[in-house]
Design goal:
188 residues, alpha/beta, Rossmann fold, 7-stranded mixed β-sheet, 7 strands, 31% helix, SAM-dependent_MTases_sf
Length: 188
């Protein structure tokens, strides 16, 4: 069972999405990821966005560790319902509504986002079968919604190629954890 690792909601269990359509980020990878993000100083008061959220574990962890807000975007009805239950748990632990859930396709959500909508920290953990062209299109749409100094984290299979970054994003790091590869980028 997955859980919030640290912060104000630390220790709270997270419900998992039933079935095998999603692949949760392991606690080991999550801990390493958030250690790096804390070292970069990008979590405190961040406006976080968790695309292809699954259970919402990454956005919820950011909220627990001090992000000002976290938006979870998930299209699958069952996964979106799990996101909402997990968000309710974290919002209750934080004693404020920090996390919101959007049942939407990622592309549609980004197209509808207001021109002034800016995020500081974005997680993309798309299904492994998502092709590289579709991922690049999402990254290109996302780039117009990033604040200065924003960090984008893409989680993929270690067997997948590096994302084809649009000109508006520049990779600054990558780290492999077994089957999982994390790519870090920032506005170019």
């Amino acid at each position: 069972m997955s859980r919030i690792i640290a912060g104000a909601a630390g220790g709270n269990p997270l419900q998992s999405v039933p079935g095998s359509a999603t692949r949760p980020t392991t606690d080991r990878v999550k801990e390493a990821l958030f250690s790096r993000l804390e070292a970069l100083g990008v979590i405190d008061d961040a406006r976080a966005l968790d695309l292809y959220a699954g259970s919402g574990a990454l956005g919820l962890e950011a909220a627990s560790r001090g992000a000002a807000s976290a938006e979870l975007v998930e299209f699958d009805a069952r996964a979106s319902a799990v996101c909402q239950r997990n968000a309710d748990t974290v919002n209750q632990a934080l004693a404020r509504k920090t996390v919101s859930v959007h049942r939407s396709k990622v592309e549609s959500f980004l197209e509808r986002a207001a021109d002034g909508a800016l995020w500081d920290l974005v997680f993309l953990d798309p299904p492994y079968p998502l092709d590289e062209q579709s991922l690049q299109a999402v990254l290109a749409k996302l780039a117009g919604h990033l604040d200065d100094g924003a960090v984008v984290v893409v989680e993929r299979s270690s067997r997948s190629p590096e994302p084809d970054w649009p000109d508006t994003l520049e990779r600054f790091a990558g780290k492999k954890y077994g089957e999982t590869m994390l790519w870090f980028a920032e506005p170019a």
